[in-house]
Design a protein that fits this description.
With 71 residues, the protein is an alpha+beta fold. It has one domain. The chain contains 2 helices and 2 strands. It has a two-stranded antiparallel sheet with strand order 1-2. The radius of gyration is 21 Å and the shape is elongated.
């Protein structure tokens, strides 16, 4: 059971090293006055520190190494 979780954590950690964040666009209302509605596209950025990827990689390696071996 530990090996699949370890592999997933390892992959997520490596991806977090490669991609340090992402940006998405959201449509938000600027003015809403009765029948008149004005909206604008606003970009939001989500970033995470590089050490977070390292934590995931280390946790994945630990789970892979300490996983129970079937006889």
């Amino acid at each position: 059971m530990n090996k699949p979780i370890g592999i997933i954590l390892l992959i997520i950690g490596l991806l977090m090293f490669i991609y340090t964040g992402f940006t998405y666009t959201k449509k938000e209302k600027v003015v809403d006055a009765g029948p008149i509605e004005i909206s604008a596209d606003k970009q939001h950025t989500v970033n995470w520190p590089p050490y977070a990827g390292g934590v995931f990689v280390i946790a994945g390696i630990i789970l892979l190494v300490t996983g129970k071996r079937k006889p």
